């Protein structure tokens, strides 16, 4: 396919990773970078041999697509301006801080017939691709996503920062929205929820237990899936997955799933470029980003309800 002209909006941690991958892509021409900090933009441009643009308006006519890697609170404002300028957009997760902003992005992309992809990176993890090939009837999920504390992304709760990856994946594998949500969470080092535990119940009896923490002593990215006669364990960090299968004679067979390891961000970016070139629906569309956000915000509401119950109990005991 012809090379897609791309710019990155936001030269922070995620933006710099996108700049690196795009500069190495055979399917993209990295045109430039936009950032609110001119010095940071200049440094990023020098490192990746591209131009700096002072405003989003300067991008119109110079690029075909853009990666939006600004703070979540700015996703809708930046993304919609680009979409209205005829530019296809890959916006980092979560799609937006609230449902109104997310719907605005989705509606704007539809109105202007632009590609809108959401950066749910784990969807492109090769180990997950291997798991999906043998997933039949998911009955139970046990998922842990734990991180060491970092001041990055403290503008959102851990549910929107970390757990939303797994919410997106569970919704995709379960093929339905949950009919019941139970959740609890606590604040430790920030003014938002830093640890959360969630139980989702889906139609047909499928259950998903999810735990996310950004104040852990170790980094963990694991998913366990149980389905009839089979248990699959996946490690996102190692990019490996193994299946334990019970035969009719009650014998347990162990089989590593074939995984071709690759950087998920590179796969995500290349999939976006392909969607732009072919004008096809991206693997993680704006609608799917909106769906994951809807469940994440419902979880935060449940966490708030639980916190009020705990507060009331403590007041009675004091």
Describe the structure.
This protein has 318 residues and is of the alpha/beta class. It is built from 8 helices and 14 strands. The longest helix has 32 residues, at 286-317. The protein is globular and about 60 Å long. The mean pLDDT is 94.
Summarize the structure.
By secondary structure, this protein is of the alpha/beta class. It contains eight helices and 14 strands. The strands form two sheets. An eight-stranded mixed β-sheet has the order 8-9-10-7-11-12-13-14.
Task: Sum up the structure in keywords.
8-stranded mixed β-sheet, globular, 318 residues, single chain, 6-stranded parallel β-sheet, alpha/beta
Q: What order do the strands of the largest sheet run in, or round the barrel if closed?
A: 8-9-10-7-11-12-13-14
Largest sheet features:
8 strands, mixed
| Multimeric status of the protein | single chain
Mean model confidence by pLDDT: 94
Strand proportion, as a percent range, falls in 25-35%
Tell me the structural class.
Answer: alpha/beta
* Element-level helix/strand string: EHEHEEHEHEHEHEEEEEEEHH
The total beta strand count reads 14
Globally, the shape reads globular
The helix fraction, in percent, is: 25-40%
- Using the CA coordinates, give the radius of gyration: 21 Å
What is the straight-line distance between the termini?
68 Å
> Low-confidence segments, ≥5 residues, pLDDT <50?
none
